[in-house]
Amino acid sequence: LLRLNGLQVYSLGGGGLEGGYGKLLALVERACADLCQTLAARIVAWTWTDDAGRPLPAPDGTPEPFRRLTPHELLYLNHVLQGDHPAARGKGSSGSPTTSSDTEPPTSPKN
């Protein structure tokens, strides 16, 4: 049994894309699209680079630049915007929400 946002999936292997796995995938895709849209409305500039150090396209008010990020990077940005991440707080700060940060993004895991 897997519970995610109220969706209960009893068998990820037995149902294939038509069963529980397909429902879970659709839910995750929708959540990712919503997060990209939310970030697009809040983040107006960055100096983000890919693993090779090449600059990623700057935010342009659309979710497109955010769709290039890894799930880990998207969650990092979400936490920073909510003030839940230590990088979003200065010394002595209570962690209030922020809309900008001079912090370094997480590094992508190397295989």
Structural class: mainly alpha
Number of strands: 2
Strand order of the largest sheet: 1-2
- Helix percent reads 25-40%
Percent strand equals: 5-15%
Round the mean pLDDT to the nearest integer and report it: 74
Q: Span from first to last CA?
A: 30 Å
Give, in order, the helices and strands. Answer: EEHHH
Point out poorly predicted stretches.
Answer: 1-9, 95-103
Q: Sketch the major β-sheet.
A: 2 strands, antiparallel
Tell me the Rg in angstroms: 17 Å
How would you describe the shape? globular
- Number of helices in the DSSP assignment: 3
Short description:
With 111 residues, the chain is mostly helical. It is 35% helix and 5% strand.
List the helices and strands and how they pair.
Layout: E1 2-4, E2 7-9, H1 20-42, H2 64-67, H3 71-82
Antiparallel strand pairs: 1-2
In words, what does this structure look like?
The two termini are 30 Å apart. The protein is built from three helices and two strands. The N terminus is likely disordered. A hairpin with a 2-residue loop joins strand 1 and strand 2. The longest helix has 23 residues. Helix 1 crosses helix 3. The relative contact order is 0.11. The chain is mainly α and 111 residues long. The protein is globular and about 40 Å long. Strands 1-2 form a two-stranded antiparallel ribbon. Helices cover 35% and strands 5% of the residues.
Entry keywords:
single chain; 111 residues; mainly alpha; two-stranded antiparallel sheet; 3 helices; 35% helix; globular; disordered N terminus
